Structure formats: structure tokens, C-alpha cells
Amino acid sequence: DIQMTQSPASLSASLGETVSIECLASEGISNDLAWYQQKSGKSPQLLIYAASRLQDGVPSRFSGSGSGTRYSLKISGMQPEDEADYFCQQSYKYPPTFGAGTKLELK
Amino acid sequence: QVNLLQSGAALVKPGASVKLSCKASGYTFTDYYIHWVKQSHGKSLEWIGYINPNSGYTNYNEKFKSKATLTVDKSTNTAYMELSRLTSEDSATYYCTRDRIYYYDGYGYWGQGVMVTVSS
Question: Which of B5, B33, B107 to mutate to test binding with chain A, by most A CBs within 10 Å of its CB?
């Protein structure tokens, strides 16, 4: 299985701060990478697909980038509603696998 | 709009089985696979498998092959996952999901999740 190593496990950001979360795949995944946001007690919600494409309705402060084995999610200007857990997921090979998650808190 | 409505929380005894449901609406049920995902301890996510509602074809994560059985009822647009021989390790929240459009697009739609608690 492809291992997704996500970092950091947690971080704290101030209002308006730019935040980055990274995922490292154990092998190349050809941009078949999605990012999800999960707020407390809710289902995960798709933010980014195909590494850099913004899901409909997601604020433009969210962006994704990367290639090969390294991918990142950036939030340009932390907002209170961005406090959540974030997960990456590869769909390049079965079984699809997820990163362990990043807990983002507002400082 | 696409909606995946899951059955309610379940409390089951060790060794028993439980069958979870996921009723789809807002799209043509047979056009998209239904995937199931496990979330343990409120954190990590694991893909269990998918079912093609049109053909009934299933693909399982090796880890869950002897644990989960996926089925569908096309007449009611409902997908099911049966979990067997339950242990405390199966206590988790289970989600049904659907591809955004293509399999490599990520899961664009999620059910609300169902918490399964295995306890005597």
C-alpha cells in the first residue's frame, strides 16, 4: 500500500496567518491527491482534488500544489471557521490511503 | 443535490454482526461507486472497499476482506455494509462516500457517518 506521511500532526495559527500542511507519498502518485477538511463531529469535506483543483464552493484562500511524491495544502489567511482536522488522500493505486491528519487550531 | 443518508448509531455485542445502510438521492444511483471508510479514534481514515451499484462488483481493502460485505438494493437506491464477528477494534465511525466524478477525483460526497460501538 502507498503510505501517506502527513505533517505536522498539529499546528496553531493566528487570524490571517498563512498555513501549510504537507503530505509525502511513499511513491509517486501522479497528482491523484485530495485534501479534506473535517470539523468536529462532522463528516470530512472535499477541499482540493487532483492535487490543485478547488472543489466547488470552497473559499479561494485554500490552495493545493505539488507533484510526484510531495504535496501541500495552503490556507492563505487563517479564519476562525478553518479550525478543523485536515487529511490528504491518494487515489493513484488501490487501496486508497489517507494521511494521519493535521489538527489546525486558532491561536 | 446529492445526499447520502446513513442509518443510526449501533451498539452491538462482541462476536455479533451489524448491517449499516446508506440511502442515496439526488443522482442516478447506478452511475457512481459507493465507497465505505472507517474512522477510528476520531482521527485516522481507512478505505474499506467499494461497490459498483450497477453490476454489484466489489473491491475490498485486503485488511477488511473477511470483515466487511458490501451489497446494494437498486430498487431503493441503498447501499449496505455488513460487519461480521465484531470486536472492540471495530468500534468506529463508518462513512459511505461517493466519488466526486471520477475515481481519482476524491470523495466529493459523504454520508453523515454512523458510530458503531462494540460492547457487552
Answer: B107
